[in-house]
Each structure stands twice: as structure tokens, then as C-alpha cells.
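## Example pair
The file below holds two records. Each record gives the amino-acid sequence first, followed by its C-alpha cell line.
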Amino acid sequence: MSNLKKEEQSKRTKKRLLLQSNSNQDRLINNSKTDRFILLLNKVVLGLVVLIVMIPLLYVLLGSFLQPHILVTRGISFNPEHWTIDGYVRIFTDGTIMRGFLNSILYAGGFTLISVGFSILAGYSLSIDNLVGKKALMIFFLFTMFFNGGMIPTYLLVRELGMINTPWAVILPGAVTVWNIILARTYFKALPNELKEAARIDGASDFKIFLNIILPLAKPIIFVLALYAFIGQWNSYFNAMIYLEDRSLYPLQLIMRDILIQNEVQPGMIADQLARAEMQRIAEMIKYSSIVVASLPLLIMYPFFQKYFEKGVMVGSLK
């Protein structure tokens, strides 16, 4: 036991010395004036970019907690006496915004499942070398990537399919994109063929190879495609504005559009006896609170998807 402890201690000492030598080498390499100037310039530029991005976000976040008259007359205030959560209370107690939030989750979730499922299946099929008609299929997909029927023919098609004023009108159109299929195909082609050949020797079918070998290795591209699809659908409101007539089916982004652009606030949010000036002040507070609530799912998702998102950018660069 004592010998094992000594060996472990020696290994730890070697690792520590190796890390120290590497850090010393890095310091020696980056010790030139040109390198230090470039690093300093990079830090300054990145700091400015962070400030440009963070200042509007902090302004909206702080504005959502300020009292309406303070926000309108004085702007942002750090005095705790001027803070309030009335905007969030009105949002979470209002049925219109919460229904829109749930609708957005339904649309984005269904859109993501369909998009990722079909993109993975099509991408894996096109990555097989001996697929019959592979070139014809790729030409067909690429043709649809550059040419489409346009908004009016698409609307007529959706209407003829009976999807007007239904959730399917928001979920199905545009769920499968050629770009995502190409990303999945590029990822699958990078996987070694020896894995599939070894599985075939063991008697595995194509379905088992895809289910038990390919899919576990495809987690990075699955998460990347899911992130792309969810964010794109979550921020979308144009299809809902065209195809939906029932306000109970509106997604959150379309409701926010009415609040932010058209300055429409539902009567249920504000008591009828309030004066018009007070209504405008509370509407201003609801705007900021709505922006924060609408951004929460994306802010929660992205830290868990970040490493896969970086891999997805590399896959796209190898296209």
C-alpha cells in the first residue's frame, strides 16, 4: 500500500511539474511586445463588444423592475424604493400572455421534434455511399434551397390542406430545411465506416446500426439542430400572423408584437378606471417585463447547449 501511495504521489508531482513547465513556456512565447499588444487589443475589443451587448440587456432587465412613473420621468434608478414586481405580477396573472407563452412552447417544441427527426433521417440516408439515386436527391434538395413558390402559393397550399387557424400551420411550414440536412449529412460522413462494417459482421441490421451506434454518436449534431430549430421558431411570428385568426392560438412573439409595436395592452392587464396616462406608464412596464419573460427559455437553454453549438459551427465550416 505504501508503494502505491508513493507512485501516486510521484505521478501527481510529475503532472504538476509538467503543467508548470507548460505555463512557463506559454509565458515565454507570449512575452514579445507584438503579442502583448495584440492580446491587449483583443481584450479591449471584446470588452467593448460585451458592453454593447450587455448595456441594452441590463437596461431592459432593470426597467422591468422599476415603477412606471420613475421609468418614464427619470429613467433607470438603482434606488430599491423605486423597484417593483408589478409588471411580472400582471404578466403571470394575465391569461393572454401566459396562453401565448404556452403556445410558443408547443409550437417550438413540435417544430424542433419534426425538424430534427427528418433532418437526421435524411442526412444519414444521404451520407451512405451506395445509396441509389443519391445525386438526384441532392440536386432536388439543393434546388428547393434556392427556389421556392413564394408566400402566396405557400398560403394557398396551407389553406387547401385545411391547416389555416390551426397549430399545424405554424409548426409544419419550414420545419425541414436543406441546410440542416446538409449539416447532418456532413456530420455522418465524418463518422468512421468501420463502426458500421463491424456491426454488420456481427449481424446487425441497418436499423439497429442507426439506432444503437449512429444515434449515440450523433448527440452533438442533434443538440445543434435542436438549438437552431427551437430558437428560430421561438422568435418567429410571421407565419402565425398570416395563418392564425384566433387570438387564443397566438404565440408569445405575436402578442409581444402587439404590445411593443402597436402599443396594444389587453383590458384585463390594466383596470378600466385608470387614467390614460397611467395606462401608458403601466404599458411601458409590461413591455420590459414581457421581453424578459420571452427571453428566459433561450437564456436557460444556451449554457447547456454551448459546447454542442461550437461543434455545430465547425461542422458548418467543413461543408
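Second record, same layout:
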Amino acid sequence: MSNIKLVVGLGNPGEKYAKTRHNAGFWFLEQLTPVTSFSFNKTFNGEIADAHIGQHKCYLFKPTTFMNLSGDAVQRVMQFYKITAPEMLVAHDELDFPAGTCRLKKDGGHGGHNGLRDIINKTGNANFMRLRIGIDHPGHASQVAHYVLKSPGLADKTRIDNALIEACNAFNVLLSDGFDAAVQQLHQR
């Protein structure tokens, strides 16, 4: 059984960014919505939901401080609910994976991801789980900022949506059977 108490989905607020690749973390939390019964409320510079998934209770959080400033909002939620870094999963877009690939990871650095960088800097801890949602790479580092702030094409969006369904299934396994079982399920595809 997992000790996850907080699931953070990273993205940018507002309609302008809702369909952009950088919002893959938000998409993951939204994919959980039909499976569970919860609604998001605005607080802590974000939107938070008290979710009951099976026998497990956790908070789902979408910071609305923009990606590069996610750490302040995440730190406030962690402090208020007395949640430690190992009790948190952060879902985020991942340039290093093809669109349609999701992977779980424990700990590590930010890998150049500004949302992760800010969370690590503000909380002083990188010891949390990540759900890395592949969005593919534009091919050159100079194109990354423009690329993540654009919508994926239909084929990539379909691959990402299908991967998010698999990620939700793996998340349920994570909660009930732990990290290793969830990795085994998610990484086999």
C-alpha cells in the first residue's frame, strides 16, 4: 500500500494554456475525475480536491501560479496538511519520452523542468515520486519553450490521452499495492 497523500499536477492556469503540452500534469488529474467523485476548490494559489480513491484518501492539487512558480503553492499545501515529500507524487510533462509514454520515478533531480526545479528549491527536497508524461521533444533545445506552450497534434494528443488512462490505472495500483507493482504495470506497455 502506498503512503501518497498529495498528487500535484503541473501546468499553467487559464484557457490560453489548457490544451498545451505543458499542461499534461493537469490533464492527468482531470483524467482521474471520472473515476472518482471530487471537485476542485480554489485555495493555496491553486485548485485542490479532497479525493477518495478506493479506500485511500489523498489531496489532488493544481497550482495556478504558472509552471515556473509552482513551488510556493506546493510548499503551502504540504505545510498546511503536514505532508512530507515522500508522501507526494508530481505529474508533469516529459520531453525525454515519446508522446504516449508515462513512467513513474522516485526521487531525482529536476532534469531541466522548471516546475520541478521550483518545487525542489522551495520545499528543499527532491525525495518525491514523479509521473513523467511523455510529450516528445521538438528536436532542438532552442525550440523547447515554444513547443511546450503549443497544443499537440491529434495523433500525439490521442497517444497522450491513452497513456493517461493507463497512468490512472497504474495510480490505483500504486495506492493499493505500492510503487513496484505500479511500475511493473505502467512500464510494461
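Notes on the second record: The beta strands are 6-9, 41-43, 46-53, 56-63, 88-94, 102-106, 129-134. The radius of gyration is 15 Å.
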